[in-house]
Specification:
Blueprint lengths: L3 E6 L17 H10 L3 E4 L4 H11 L5 E3 L4 E4 L12 E3 L2 E5 L4 H15 L1 E3 L5 H8 L3 H7 L6 E5 L6 H9 L2 E5 L4 E5 L4 H16 L3 E7 L5 H6 L2 E4 L16 E2 L4 H16 L2
Parallel strand pairs: 1-2, 1-11, 2-3, 11-12, 12-13
Antiparallel strand pairs: 3-4, 4-6, 5-6, 7-8, 8-10, 9-10
Helix pairs in contact: 1-9, 4-5
């Protein structure tokens, strides 16, 4: 019996191209997903405000996971689902999984001079535009953080002592495409995907085939949490060192690679 397909996807460098943030290369797969009513769940380091803007631009009304697993959001009345642990907040049903942003920022403020770290909360809109290539409005949305702090550090990697102090404070550091991310311990994309899958399974009453698509170290926990993981290469063609059951590797970076991988899955697994 064919299982209900659910797609979980990273955005930057996966569905969205690393340069320019375009999803144009994924147009055909996105159209098929909409036609087939396949749930497409964004799992991203982006903020809720950024995701809502993207969903509106792409005509998508689905759950999403923001800020590296900090929050799991469902549209109100989504498929008549029961959502245990969800609370209504600003027009969405939220399951809070991360630490409050105020706690994360306090940690950064107390250590940014000693360790040479610079968080998004320290940056002006203009600085964020220059670093990321976002437009001013997108940069403004990226600063509306709720659970995590992306940051840059002088040198190749955060000092070991910073990681040790983060662990003692109940925090951890992960790596995304452009930034390191300071997040709550035990919070990651994989745990949020598992929570979402429990809700889907509990409401659908049928077997689920879960697919996860990502390209960076902070995506590995998500890839490990699904039935069918898909790894997108970096712009230089290099793949993260990942060894998981049923792993597929997309043939090229960004939205084009995403498109080919998803179309292949839809050909064999779609309803």
């Amino acid at each position: 019996m064919r299982r209900k397909l659910i797609l979980f996807t990273d955005l930057d460098g996966s569905l969205l191209d690393h340069q320019g943030y375009s999803c144009e290369g994924a147009r055909s797969a996105l159209e098929r997903i909409r036609d087939l009513s396949v749930p497409l769940v964004f799992v991203t380091s982006k903020t809720r405000a950024e995701v809502l803007r993207l969903q509106g631009d792409m005509d998508i009304r689905e759950p999403f996971i923001s800020e590296n697993g900090g929050g799991l959001f469902f549209p109100p009345g989504y498929r008549n689902f029961r959502i245990p642990g969800g609370v209504e907040q600003d027009g969405r049903i939220l399951i809070r999984l991360g630490r409050p942003y105020s706690e994360i920022r306090r940690f950064v403020e107390e250590r940014k001079t000693r360790f040479g770290i610079r968080g998004v909360g320290d940056m002006s809109i203009g600085e964020l535009v220059e670093i990321t290539g976002l437009g001013p409005e997108e940069a403004r949305l990226a600063k509306q953080r709720e659970f995590t702090e992306p940051f840059l550090v002088a040198g190749d990697a955060p000092p070991a002592l910073l990681g040790e102090e983060a662990r003692k404070a109940g925090l951890t550091i992960t790596r995304g495409g452009r930034f390191y991310h300071l997040i709550g311990s035990g919070q990651d994309k994989g745990e949020a995907v598992k929570r979402a899958l429990r809700i889907f399974r509990g409401n659908l009453g049928e077997e689920v085939l879960s697919v996860g698509i990502g390209d960076r170290p902070n995506d590995i926990s998500m890839l490990a949490a699904v039935d069918l993981p898909v790894l997108i290469p970096h712009p230089d063609g290099r793949y993260e060192d990942v060894d998981l059951p049923n792993l597929r590797r997309a043939p090229c970076p960004g939205s084009r690679g995403w498109n080919e991988a998803v179309n292949g899955i839809l050909d064999t697994a779609a309803p």
